[in-house]
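Review form for a predicted model. The reviewer records the input and the model, then writes brief findings.
Reviewer: anonymous (R2)
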Amino acid sequence: MKLFELLGIIAALFQILGYYTYYKLSIRGHIRPNAASWLIWFYGNAIVCISYLSIGTFSLADLLPIVCALSNIVIVVALWLKKFFGPIEPYEKTIITSDIIITILWLFLEYSSFGLSIELFTGMSVALIIHILLLTSAVISFIPVIKDTLSDKCAEDKRPWVIWSSAYLVWIIAETLSGAGWNILYPALYLLLHSAVFIILILKKPKPYC
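Model under review:
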């Protein structure tokens, strides 16, 4: 087994640990999961995973997006059944709508000849264009959870976020060693987004028992 493959497995295990930690903290009342962000991640990460894997050849270094997509589905279903999600705010509905529009655009580019026209015009592959669109969607999806983190001391807990940040950092190293090109955009952006939540939690005053 090559080093980048081993690191890919380690990154995936970190990711699972992060989701497990998040779930345990949620059911204990230490976290108030944001419904809008998790709803987008529920289907969005699965699409990003498909898009990501379509760009290059799969290896063990690419386990994290698969684990992320499956874990999101499990966590959302589990927390929804336990009624841990609060109501969706009006601005969050707008964010979800924009994400759905991006998803529809992805499907249109993926399954129509229009995508080939864009490919000829830009010189970029359809898969790469779609992937960039979905990464834009990822940024949008983090707006509700970051807003909650800034305004509510009990919205999030730093432990799962530092674990997820570590997972993406290890994955970046794995992708770099494997000679990834555009693929590095995905883990780099997600490291930035997860680290942003973690840093906000670090800078905030210690929260009371929630």
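Findings: The chain has a mean pLDDT of 84.
Further findings: The radius of gyration is 17 Å.
Recommendation: see findings above.
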